[in-house]
Design goal:
The protein is an alpha/beta fold. Helices cover 27% and strands 28% of the residues.
């Protein structure tokens, strides 16, 4: 008799300012491709990544790509509903996108909590490290301190373009 697989469905948000690379990160992760020519996301888009965790378990990740201009819109509450985690993305080449991270985190925390009342886990992604990350290199302790102060579970440098170990996790 064949044992049935257990399936899990998790909604994960990918949020951050316009043009930080949210769509590129999702497309690279889900479809293993990269293009420099994406249009700005209007409202929300989502992709599904199916992970065969083991022979008995399938994990389906719904990655919700929230438009960068939606931060203070009334729709974010609807988009955030039932998510169990989030990535907040900024562009290492544009300091203004890092400055907006705490606003995104505050918006998320004010509109979404887990059923137990606690905030969802959020990972900070420092994207476009292939273009150089003087921003991070100049202040290595800044990221660690920022994550601790704002309740992020972790932070990583990323590059949807390179998709390699060149952009290693930030050391904490």
């Amino acid at each position: 008799m064949q044992k049935s697989q257990t399936e899990h469905l998790y909604k994960i948000l990918v949020i951050g300012d316009l043009g930080v690379g949210k769509t590129s990160i999702i497309k690279r992760y889900v479809h293993q491709n990269f293009s420099q020519h994406y249009r700005a996301t209007i409202g929300v888009d989502f992709a599904l990544k199916v992970i065969h965790w083991d022979s008995d378990t399938v994990v389906r990740l719904q990655l919700w790509d929230i438009a960068g201009q939606e931060r203070f819109g009334n729709m974010t509450r609807v988009y955030y509903r039932e998510a169990i985690g989030a990535f907040i993305v900024f562009d290492v080449t544009r300091a203004s996108t890092f400055e907006a991270v705490s606003k995104w985190k505050d918006d998320l925390d004010s509109k979404l909590t887990l059923p137990n009342g606690k905030p969802v886990s959020v990972v900070l992604l420092a994207n476009k490290c292939d273009k150089g990350s003087e921003f991070i290199s100049a202040n290595p302790g800044r990221m660690e301190q920022f994550c601790k102060e704002h309740g992020f579970v972790s932070c990583f440098e990323t590059s949807a373009k390179r998709y390699s170990a060149e952009c290693a996790p930030l050391s904490f």
